[in-house]
Amino acid sequence: MVHFREYINDIREKFENSLDFYVNMALKGEVPDLFKNIDYRNLEIIFILVIKEQKKEWLGNVKDPMEMAVRSVIRTNKIWKCKVIVINEEIAKKRKLIEG
User: Fold this and answer.
1) Is residue 75, in this structure, part of any structural domain at all?
2) Dihedral angle at the C-alpha atoms of 8, 82, 39, 34, nearest 10 degrees?
């Protein structure tokens, strides 16, 4: 159980760092023009976690704790609406998020 919590926290930290990196770039105006016109007041952040070799029926076991961990980050919870999607490789390929 301890390893699972560490796994969830590591992933949450990576999501958080990615969001921080993007926000810093956006504040400096260093994002592509497409992103400069986003209305950030109505933005919904969707974190997509793709887990290799994971059975579909096991995805919910990761999604719920991951969603709670991400929503516990105050700035994501208070500033933007936040959603977590956990999928496996097969689903990611079908949705054309990855090649394969």
Assistant:
1) yes
2) 40
Could you tell me if residue 100 is inside a domain?
A: no
- Contact 7/49 with Cβ under 8 angstroms? no
From first to last of its 100 residues, the chain has per-residue pLDDT tens of 679 889 999 999 998 898 889 888 988 889 888 888 888 777 888 899 999 988 888 888 899 899 888 877 755 556 667 889 999 999 999 999 998 7
Question: Measured between alpha carbons, how far is 49 from 16 in angstroms, rounded to an integer?
Answer: 13
* Cβ-defined contacts of 34-43 (< 8 Å, 24+): 40/80, 43/80, 43/81
Helical H segments across the chain, by residue range = 2-27, 33-36, 59-71, 74-79, 89-94
Range of the domain at 49: 2-94
Length of the chain equals 100
Q: What is the pTM of this model?
A: 0.77
Total domain count for the chain?
Answer: 1
